[in-house]
Amino acid sequence: MAVAAYASLVSLAHVLDNVHCRAQLGRLHVDMKQIEYLEEGVNFFLKFLEVNSGRGEVNGDLWKQLGEVVFAAEQIIDFHVVYEIRLRYQGETGVSGLSAFKEDIEQVIDSIEYIKNEILAEEEVPKDVQPGKQPKLSEHGETSSVTPSDGKNTIVGFDEHEVAIMDVLTRDEPNLQIIPIVGMGGNGKTTLAKAVFDNQYIADHFDRCIWLTVSQEYKVQDILVGLLNDGKVKANDGNIDRLGESLHKELFKRRYLIVMDDVWSVQAWDDLRKYFPDNCNRSRILITTRLYDVAAYLGSSTYPMTFLDSEKSWNLFCQTTFGEKDCPYPELQEFGRGIVENCKGLPLEIVVIGGLLSKSDMSREYWESVAKNVSSFGNSGYDEHCLKILSLSYNHLPIPLKSCFLFLGSYPEDSKIVVADLTRRWIANGLIRAVDERSSEDIAMEFIKDLFARNLIFVRKQTIIGKIKVCGIHDLLRHLCLKEVEKEQFIRSPKVQDTKNDGAAVCFLCGDASPDDVIDVSKLIFPSPSGVSPPSICGSCRMMYSHITRERLAGIMSGSHDEFDFLHPTQARYVSVTTREDVVYVWPSLQLLWNLQTLKITVYEPSYQLVFPDEIWEMPQLRHLVVTPRMAIFPDPATATHAEGRESIVLEKLQTLSGIRNFNWTKDALDRIPNLNTLEVSYKSKGEGSTESSNHSLCNLIQLQKLQSLKIAFAPKNIAFPSSLKELCLERSTYKIPWSGLSIIGSLPNLEKLKLREATEGSEWYPVEGEFLRLKKLTIWYSDLVQWRADREHFPTLEALRLQFIDSLEEIPSGIGDIPTLHRIELEDCGPSAFDSACQIWEEQQSMENDTLEILVKYRWEWHPISKFIRQHESEHEDEEEFQHEDKNGDD
User: Fold this and answer.
1) DSSP 3-state assignment of 519?
2) Distances from the Cα of 620 to the Cαs of 91, 736, 759, in angstroms?
3) 547 to each of 68, 248, 430, 489, 490, how far by Cα in Å?
4) Beta 737-738 vs 760-761: how paired, if at all?
5) Burial of 270 (0-12, 13-18, 19+ CB in 10 A)
6) CB hemisphere CA count around 125 (13 angstroms)
7) Of 739, 763, 631, which is closest to residue 685 (Cα–Cα)?
8) Is 66 left (phi over 0), alpha (psi -120 to 50) or beta?
9) Where are any strands of DSSP class E within 559-664?
10) What is residue 16's predicted lDDT score, i.e. its pLDDT?
11) Are 12 and 76 in contact (CB under 8 A)?
């Protein structure tokens, strides 16, 4: 129960910080001495658990009791704060409820003091547990001298498997073939299939390559949409026949490879097989499954995945643990080989235990203890054996990392987990404890890297500069998460809410369809108006939050019932709203979500703009506000009404402001958001009225010295860019920048990504040496550029170049190909001259044995390597020469 108690304590610490802030600014009536005493108790337990995380629990019952007390404290505080906000919203004072609140908090403090004394009686408190000290976090509670794994998805021992599968896929059998790869979970089926799928030879061999994960619970329409959209499941109208017909047409007369990963039933295949045409052109379908009967049903040439032998197991272990082919520590070899032997050739176990040991201090004593633990699992059944091996790595995680790892179990099986979304949900659930001067976001990204290095998550997608963008978790590890969550009673209250307003019945907490239970309207803080149905809640949420005796909900109304009627838990910290309705105003009582950190609003088919209330400036916990599409009106803080004598709130935690339109960036407004990191704004297009005469004070943006990402659509004149910028995107600018004027942007010292879409004017660009010194990715869309003169000195660190819809460009400068860091050029709908110069660059780099540069061309909505077009051109040229030769002989 220690992990759940720790997570609850971190969450309460965030709540108390918010209470402290609001009280100091005169927004809340509390006894500050009580709050500070409660904070001291919370900090004591946090530090105690951090220091003792590797030494076992003191007493499970005490941690369970502590978790319940902390949960009760959050409920009490939430009720009091919401009560005061409601009274103030109605023009009344909240002092009348202070006495009862003090009595409730006093009981919480007494309970915490009792538990503290009980723990002190059982355990000697380490010296590190002192106010103001942050204990060192490692798996042993000590500083570890680590030789970490490089975290790569290694496929050591799979080489012959990869060759064999590629041979089956490319042999001359003309008929459509289904090749199932079968084996137990964790033995590398997906890793092997992915290695084959990503092989350049395979990409060149097939006209269309699609990867899709099927999993146990699937919907045929989602699979079909995913196949139509290269594995990305998008919204659809649910008509299976129409989708299937579209897929059949898409694949007809094309040689295709489809990888269907993690198939659990023959029904999944039977539901789809009629949509895959047999073109007799060597198309293939590669399937991975754990079930031998499914594999036998699907294909005659089943490929079984065998366990690794002892030598390959050892090589994989060493590569994972040390990044080398062998163990560099002779005194650890005996223990290491014993550990590997007990993993029984299962790759997942080997890489997970290797990830654990790669983070250790490489001491003989520690390795011996791990070896003894692993060997004790030898007589277990295989499923139990796997879980015990994996739980060993979990048990040795630092306790702050344990709670974040367990949270991964809340994602559906085989999910593509967007890292930005995951880290925000970690923070919103109170799982990240900010320490020193580091932000919660920075600490969350460190946790992502740590979990990756320990092989507890894997990378699905990276950014061009190598950051993890999308990750995943293996099914066996997810199963471990679910078991630990159940044991810990980990998630205690609904702090994250996904709301969909598309007419379908969905759970108002998680957004899942077909809820099987309904909350009683009488439990709402604000009664539901007549004609509005009570909110629905699904069975899984009802079960997860079964310990909550009274739902804390607030009805957030705006104008009429049919505009934007949503119900939210007042403790929600992360709210994602998706709606197809026209929205005029966003909840005038938004401030009831007093702990809100992230607000995402997506409006499909909008005809009106969102208008945020003045109360948005009264939310000091707000970190991310994202509106899609860019259509939100943000209130001017100068016109926002504040009670007389109260200090203005500075939104110090606000980092992301996206989707804002026509905002005036006055000095006062910028003073209120000093730590903004990401900004996306737009201004009226010419069709809506020119902005050239309007003053939106964009020159004041230079004041945002922590701004790293800036995106402006329909930008007017007079923009000043802060030197902190790393990413800049200018779209459809009202005022076009002449190419010679790009020196202002080129001189930004930290700029790494630049995207220009209909943002420039002129036909010539001659960059100046000494600019764009750190630029890694350059994208140019819709430009009249004709002549571009540049070489490696002008973009010395460029890694990726993307040119789209540039018909007039005479050539891509040949010197671009000589940039040593460049590894990718992409062309989409550019003129033949640009294409020819790209071919020339590729051939020149190939002649110099530069195999790292990849040049891709988009053709028929797909990206193809330029080498494919070069070979086609050469083949056509050879055919023409042969025809001419035969014709000449015929004349003779």
Assistant:
1) coil
2) 21, 37, 36
3) 10, 50, 19, 10, 12
4) parallel
5) exposed
6) 16
7) 631
8) alpha
9) 566-569, 574-579, 598-603, 610-611, 624-628, 632-633, 656-661
10) 94
11) no
CA–CA separation, 879 vs 728, rounded Å? Answer: 48
3-state per-residue secondary structure call for 312-366: HHHHHHHHHHHCCCCCCCHHHHHHHHHHHHHCCCCHHHHHHHHHHHHCCCCCHHH
> Which single residue is written with the structure tokens 């009560």?
83
| Euclidean distance between CA atoms 433 and 426, whole angstroms | 10
Q: Which of 156, 555, 431 is nearest to 320 (CA)?
A: 156
Residue type present at position 518: V
Dist CA 312 CA 344 (whole Å): 11
The two tokens of residue 496 are 């994250």
Q: How many CB atoms lie within 10 A of CB 324?
A: 11
Best CA proximity match to 715, nearest among 731, 704, 703: 731
456 band by pLDDT with thresholds 50, 70 and 90 = confident
Q: Give the residue extent of every domain in the chain.
A: 2-122, 159-304, 310-488, 753-892
CA atoms within 13 A of residue 328's CA, in its CB half-sphere = 10
Show Cβ contacts of residue 889 under 8 Å, excluding neighbours closer than 6 positions.
none
Here the tokens at position 133 are 């000290």
Distances (CA, A) of 705 to 160, 325, 750: 53, 46, 12
Separation of alpha carbons 583 and 577, rounded Å: 12
The verdict on pTM exceeding 0.90 is: no
CA distances from 67 to 5, 51, 62, 79, 493 (A): 4, 18, 9, 19, 12
pLDDT at 841 over 90: yes
Residues 6 or more apart whose CB falls under 8 angstroms from that of 120 comprise none
Q: Write out pLDDT tens, residues 17-46.
A: 999 988 888 888 899 999 999 999 999 999
Rounded CA separation 318/313 (Å): 9
Predicted confidence (pLDDT) at residue 847 exceeds the cutoff of 60: yes
Specify the 3-state DSSP secondary structure of 669: helix
Q: List helix spans (H) across 508-609.
A: 539-544, 561-564
Residue-wise pLDDT tens digits, 607-666: 667 788 888 898 899 999 999 877 788 888 877 655 445 678 899 999 999 999 889 899
Q: Where are the alpha helices (DSSP H) in 651-690?
A: 667-671
DSSP assignment string, 591-616: GGSTT--EEEEEESS--S-EE--GGG
> For residue 830, which of 841, 838, 822 has the smallest C-alpha distance?
838
Residues 6+ apart with CB under 8 A from 379: none
Task: Look at residue 142 and give its three-state secondary structure.
Answer: coil
Angle (nearest 5°) at CA 418 between 415 and 423: 115
Mean of pLDDT values over 489-509: 63
Domain 2-122: top CATH class: mainly alpha
pLDDT of residue 239: 78
- Whether 380 and 374 have beta carbons less than 8 Å apart is answered as no
What's the fold here for domain 159-304? Rossmann fold (3.40.50)
Q: Which two structure tokens, joined as six digits, stand for 72? A: 């009760």
CB neighbour burial string for 567-590, b if at least 16 within 10 angstroms, e if fewer? bbbbbbbbbbbbbebebebbbebb
Query: Are 612 and 634 spatial neighbours (Cβ–Cβ below 8 Å)?
Result: yes
Q: DSSP string covering 214-247, please?
A: --SS--HHHHHHHHHTTT--------HHHHHHHH
Distance CA 111, CA 125 (A): 19
Structure tokens belonging to residue 443: 């600490």
Rg of the chain taking only CA atoms, in angstroms: 30
Residue 331 and residue 865: Cα distance in Å, rounded?
49
Residue 347 has pLDDT above 80, yes or no: yes
The angle that helices 475-488 and 399-407 make with each other, rounded to 10 degrees, is 110
Q: What is the pLDDT of residues 217-260, one digit of tens each?
A: 778 887 888 788 765 545 455 678 888 888 888 888 889 999 98
